[in-house]
């Protein structure tokens, strides 16, 4: 027996699944098609998808959470005013947490500008923020003296690092694939609605019928009978 190669089988399986999805779309009646198109157009009019809005909320949470931890650290180390002057005015890379707060502000501004304001559909912005965050935190942990300043020397760098990578995972595996899938569904539904519009609406299923069978056999029989009549008269 001849066996198809695996790549040909995969291609056949993919084509069958795509044809199945197209058949499912075309099996929907025009009312349902219009309802789906209106729902997709309503999502487009909103300007931002639900999953992208969730991502932007998480980016905001990142900034607020790091800010809260930094304020707690300022209170623990001798009061907000004294510690704030020490960490901001007399900034020292080796002992200050102010740069970690600025790193969270940097992530917030770049990601909100790229994915909320500009509605970017590419991963380069999140790749930039994650790379800068990871490199800066690794260098600060290696070179600074944060570990000698108590628990916050561990908490702030670790939390910032984890939040940056969660944002990357969420955008790359949730936001962009889901929006691309919704866009493909919209194109399929619009194509199905255009095909539906080409079919005349006044025709019913009973009006599509096959023509009657030809009566050539009966004509031949009549001709045969006519030819036999002179013989009988003789």
Automatic annotation (TrEMBL):
Q: Which GO terms describe its cellular component?
A: endoplasmic reticulum membrane; endoplasmic reticulum-endosome membrane contact site; late endosome membrane; lysosomal membrane
Report the membrane topology from the UniProt record: Multi-pass membrane protein
Question: What segments bear the compositional bias annotation Polar residues?
Answer: 10-20
Spell out the InterPro entries in the cross-references: MENTAL (IPR019498), STARD3 (IPR051869)
Q: Which UniProt keywords apply?
A: Membrane, Transmembrane, Transmembrane helix
Claim: Transmembrane helix is one of the keywords in the record: yes
Its protein name is STARD3 N-terminal like
Q: Which family does it belong to?
A: Belongs to the STARD3 family.
* Zinc recorded as keyword: no
Q: MENTAL domain: which residues?
A: 48-218
Q: Where is the composition biased (Basic and acidic residues)?
A: 224-234
Give the subcellular location: Late endosome membrane
According to the record, the segments passing through the membrane are 55-76, 96-116, 123-143, 149-166
**Annotated spans, Disordered:** 1-20, 200-234
Any GO MF annotation of the entry: cholesterol binding
The UniProt entry's GO biological process terms, in alphabetical order, are:
cholesterol transport; vesicle tethering to endoplasmic reticulum
- Superkingdom to which the source organism belongs: Eukaryota
């Amino acid at each position: 027996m001849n066996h198809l190669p695996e790549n040909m089988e995969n291609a056949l399986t993919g084509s069958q699944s795509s044809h199945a999805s197209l058949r499912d779309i075309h099996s929907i009646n025009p009312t349902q098609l219009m309802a789906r198109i209106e729902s997709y157009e309503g999502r487009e009019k909103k300007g931002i998808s639900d999953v992208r809005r969730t991502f932007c909320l998480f980016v905001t949470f990142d900034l607020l959470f790091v800010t809260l931890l930094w304020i707690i650290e300022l209170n623990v180390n001798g009061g907000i005013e004294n510690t704030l002057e020490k960490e901001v005015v007399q900034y020292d890379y080796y002992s200050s947490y102010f740069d970690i707060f600025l790193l969270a502000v940097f992530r917030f501004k770049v990601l909100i500008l790229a994915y909320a304001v500009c509605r970017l559909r590419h991963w380069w912005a999140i790749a930039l923020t994650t790379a800068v965050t990871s490199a800066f935190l690794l260098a600060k942990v290696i070179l600074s003296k944060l570990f000698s300043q108590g628990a916050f020397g561990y908490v702030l760098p670790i939390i910032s690092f984890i939040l940056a990578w969660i944002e990357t995972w969420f955008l790359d595996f949730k936001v962009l694939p889901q929006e691309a899938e919704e866009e493909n569904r919209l194109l399929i539904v619009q194509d199905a609605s255009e095909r539906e519009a080409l079919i005349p609406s006044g025709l019913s299923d009973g009006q599509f019928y096959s023509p009657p069978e030809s009566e050539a056999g009966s004509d031949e029989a009549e001709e045969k009978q006519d030819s036999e009549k002179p013989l009988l008269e003789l």
